[in-house]
Structures are given as structure tokens and as C-alpha cells.
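User: Sequence for Transposase below. C-alpha cells please.
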Amino acid sequence: MDRRPLHKGWHSRGYLPHLDAPGELQALTFRLADSLPRKVIECWKRELQGTKGGDLQLRRQIAVYEDAGHGSCLLGSDDHAATVQEALLHGDGNHYRLLEWCIMPNHVHVLIACLPGASLGDIVRRWKTYTAHAIHRKRGSAGNVWAEDYHDRYIRDLDHFHDARAYIRNNPVRAKLCASPAEWRWGSAAYRERVD
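Assistant: C-alpha cells for Transposase:
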């Protein structure tokens, strides 16, 4: 019998500390496998090594690169974006509380709180596995759909929560894909407006 704890608490996947705990708010980003080559990230890391605020600068450079729409941008297809949105909504209330999301052409932002009995890594793995299979079926393709890892940020306080929420909602506006968050069909702002 596996006696490892379901929720890892504070841990490292080799580079930054992460928190996997029930009830904690997490801002996540995961992207398509071809959206940001690893060699680009490694180059930026070398350039920023030892500089003040290097981690923040790296995150900003990654966000700008993602929003520029590099790679195949499979999620620019309504069919594939709908698949991802359905997967996110499917576990809401069972494994996590889904607070915000935005499906961009080559990456996805999500704000969730894990519920007891569901680890953060397992949640992301389920999303990626289900959507990769569905996308491959629809395209008649094979290979990696998603980049191997994901980025997560523990939400420290109410200000951080509001900042993360605004960032997710406004991502398509910043990327010049729409004029307001409610216009972007594949995000929580538009979804809630349609449902409410």
C-alpha cells in the first residue's frame, strides 16, 4: 500500500517551492508542448542568473512569449478550446473549486482551490491526459500536446488573489485577442456571463 501523503504540502519539483494542500488557492499555467521551446527558457535563465528580480523577469518574459502566440496554437480552434473548458468544468466541485480560467491559443490559466482527496499534480495530469486524447482523436494525430510541466503559484493573500484573478481574466485583452474579458469565449468571464 502506498503511504505517501496525497497532498505533498510544500515541496520542490527541482527549481521552485510549490504548495499542494487542500483548500489553498493556486494560480496555474500550463501550455502546449510547442509553445515555448525549453532552449529559450534555458537561455533566459542563463541571462538572468544572479540578477536582482531574475525570477520575476523570467516569468514576465515567458508570459509575453506565450501571449505572442508561438507554436501551433491548437487551442485557437474552438473545438479544442471547448474540449479544454469542458475538462476544467468537469472536476469543479468534485476535485477542486474552479474560480477563474482562460484558455489562450497556446496556454491555459486556471485559479483553483484543491479539495481534500485531490492532489494538484493529479488534477493537472487528468486535464492534460483527457484533453490530449480528445485532441488527438479529433485531429487524427499523435505526440505530445502539452508541455511536460506546469507553473503554479500559491495565492498568499487577498491582494494576490485579486491580482491573479485580474491577470487571468485580462490575458486575452493584453494579448489583443479581444477588447474586454467578457468577449473572450474561452474564459470564466464570458462563461459566467452566459450562465448567469
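DSSP finds six helices and six strands in the chain.
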